Amino acid sequence: MRSLVTGAGGFIGANLVRALSARGDKVHACVRSASDSWRLRGIEDSIILHEADVSSREDIERVVLESKPELVFHLAHYGGNRGQNDGEAIRRVIIDGTAHLYEACMRAGTLKAIVHAGTSSEYGAKKDAMREDMVLEPDTEYGVAKAWATLFGEHLRREKGVPITTLRFFSVYGPYEAPTRFFPAVILSLLAGMPPSLSNPSTVRDFVHVDDVINAFLLVPEKEAGIYNIGTGLSISLESALSIIQRELGSDMNVTWGNMEGRSFDSPLWQADIEKAREVLGWKPKSTLEEGVRKTVAWFKEHRDLYAQK
Question: Is residue 102 a contact partner of residue 114, using CB atoms and an 8 Å limit?
């Protein structure tokens, strides 16, 4: 199978590229020009690397023409991490990039399915577990742009029959995650014997291990296209997650909360309703948080050197 992955140099993208290559796909990995593709080290000979700016129509048309993809996994994004606050870049990468990619794929004539990486940020804060049929009320520019990308895909699916599925991810963690995010920041700090920077202990997330996310990606092309939440259905506080990490590391370090600013959209409830994914995709998370933390800590212990200069 010829597979094209945008955002292939990112956390989830790199894990997906490795999984697709391992199952025997001919993988075309699209990364930003001159980016540091450190997450793809060691597999360069088994994939085909394309440097491109997804917001450039010409770049994307070139990549699609060269790769002739049957499966397209669209993970390129900007705005989801701390410090990514450039509104113009958010619109350019997410809105323009998505439109250019989908239009190029429709013209290529080789497409079997597109899987788009959505986000729980499309929902905005809710009082109940988030369902796919809820009204979208995003409270960040990133969430607004991602909601647009999802709705544009739904329009093409319904009106033109383009097989586009959106997987709305909740808080994904695991190998190759960015060092500024909660799990890597805490694990790497504790491994170095340093107290981690922490915001609010009562902030909650629905943490889902990246292996479970990749399993969803691999399932989707054979299933009914649509929108699916990918989480665990559990709302876990940062304080509880930290306790599990410390227990796995055998750390009894006293930590201080509140020495890092929280995010404006943090909510007392952030939880996926995953019944649709269970029923239609036959997908459910395999890793409990304890099991996921165990795998993640073991990986970071073995690969600390990758983060030395990050």
Answer: yes
User: Which residue type sits at 36?
Assistant: D
CATH no. for 174-205+234-265+287-307: 3.90.25.10
**181: CB partners within 8 A, 6+ apart:** 81, 173
31-82: pLDDT as tens digits: 998 788 999 999 999 999 999 999 999 999 999 999 999 999 999 998 877 7
Q: Span 2-172+209-230: which CATH code? A: 3.40.50.720
Per-position b or e across 225-248, b if 16+ CB within 10 A of its CB: bbbbbbbbbbbbebeebbebbbeb
Asked if 68 contacts 110 with a C-beta cutoff of 8 angstroms, the reply is yes
Domains of the chain, by residue range, sit at 2-172+209-230, 174-205+234-265+287-307
DSSP string, 187-203: HHHHHTT-PPP---TT-
Return phi, psi of residue 253, to 5°: -60, 135
3 state DSSP class of 273: coil
DSSP label of 53:
-
The pLDDT tens digits of the residues spanning 162-206 come to 999 999 999 999 999 999 999 999 999 999 999 999 999 999 999
Give the span between the Cα atoms of 229 and 276, in whole angstroms.
8
Other C-beta atoms closer than 10 Å to the C-beta of 114 total 27
